[in-house]
Amino acid sequence: MFQAYKFHHLDSGPATTYTISRDEALHFYKEMLIVRRMETAAGNLYKEKAIRGFCHLYSGQVLQRFRISAHTPVVGQNDKNSAEV
Questions:
Q1: What is the pTM of this model?
Q2: Which of 20, 31, 56, 76 is 20 to 30 A from 64 (CA-CA)?
Q3: Other CB atoms closer than 10 Å to residue 72's CB: what's the count?
Q4: Measured distance CA(35)–CA(76) in Å, rounded
Q5: Which residue range forms the structural domain that includes residue 34?
Q6: Percent helix, strand and coil across the chain, each rounded to 5?
Q7: Does 15 map to a domain?
């Protein structure tokens, strides 16, 4: 029915499971709440015409940002001389 997906220049694909601690989960949850509240506030200000121009919101998609960042290592995370990006 389904054909195997061929990865471009990769031996294997990304992990299909992820283990997260309670503290990490709470951290991501709090971050998601902050982003969602900011997005709601920006949307309301845009509707009130307090924000001019175009305002693109990711309402309902905030989880995707955190799913990606949870699986992506921070640049310089293990290097004391480099700044985090």
A1: 0.57
A2: 76
A3: 8
A4: 24
A5: 22-71
A6: 40, 0, 60
A7: no
